[in-house]
Write a structure and sequence with these properties.
Elements lengths: L1 H51 L3 H6 L9 E8 L7 E3 L2 E7 L7 E7 L13 E3 L5 E4 L4 E6 L10 E8 L6 H7 L4 H32 L5 H11 L8 H14 L8 H25 L3 H9 L4 H12 L1 H16 L3 H7 L8 H8 L7 H22 L3 H5 L6
Antiparallel strand pairs: 1-8, 2-3, 3-7, 4-8, 5-6, 6-7
Helix pairs in contact: 1-13, 3-13, 4-7, 4-10, 4-12, 5-7, 7-10, 7-11, 10-13, 12-13
Amino acid sequence: MTAVVQQVGTTVARVRTGWRTKAKPGQLLTHLSLLILVLIWTAPTAGLLISSFRSKDQLAVSGWWTALAVAVTQEGTRLPTADSSIAETGLFVIRGRLPGTDMGTKIRSYGLNARDLTAAAPGESLSMQDGGSITVEADGSFEWSADRPFTHTRGPRLFYVVERSPRFTIDNYIEVLTTSGLGRSFINSFAVTIPATFIPILVAAFAAYALAWMRFPFRNLIVVTVIGLLVVPLQMSLIPLLSLYNDIAHAFGAADGKTYLGVWLAHTAFGLPLAIYLLRNYMLGLPREIMEAARIDGASHFQIFTKIVLPLSFPALASFLIFQFLWVWNDLLVAMVFLGNQETKLVLTGKLASLLGTRGNNWEVLTAGAFVTIVVPLTVFFALQRYFVRGLLAGSVK
């Protein structure tokens, strides 16, 4: 008996060892590929997050990947004119602070020529060409003294090397959150996104059930048409769609065609093909026996749909809800076309675009605003992410 147990144990050990030996290279390659994909996908998001806590000056000096390192830059400025001088005990002195030397900075060296930035170290005096000497301290303060009055009307140039320690701030988020109209834009985004997400889900659920479980003429032709509509982008037909919508609105006496209804209809129309295709495939994978048992019990199509098919199709519904919600929430073009740039109808993406500035140089505000807008989509995704994969694989296996 002991010999048999030992033999079985040896066999099992060999099987496990062999399985590990064969599976290890494949698993290693798979895990490595997934790790690379995750890094590629999360690197921009990490950069956005780090940049949102940096000031405008820091963003201009170095990239986000060097945010934790000391940044060394070469800068230059003109010294003050003679009007800034004061007389002290037989000397004439000009004092001040070099620009860009706030908290967290340190002067490494300085000079009078851009080619000789190491002429003097902080605390050392450097002779000026017009007489006198200048001393620059490590904190950026300087003192230029001479034994005769200053007469220059244009200050000489001074070049210096400055070290900037890593420094983070929440001022960007404070600016974004305290900006007038941001709360209204949040409400406008919800007013656009929620109906534009649930209307196509409701319509597509009925259509998908009909195409999956009901018999009627031209059913296959409709399915092919729906699949063909998947390749039509909203942007390609945006202008004709807007023109048609305005004509209909004016025909019914509407003075202003820029309403929420236009955005809802646009996102619903172009979200339906994907929703119908996704839900139909999932519903086709449901057990036929359940439907037949319900029909034997006298259930109508509506009862089967509402009490059996719809609850069982929740993974597919959740998957499309995530896609549609993210698409509509992050949309700027459609909202700007159908709603315009009125302050009372401006969505969150439009508000952030206005915060960017007329010259597009307020990147610190844009990065903080981007993370403010990410909060809601992330909440929706993590709330429904356990259904996401199951919904995407709907109908892939028979």
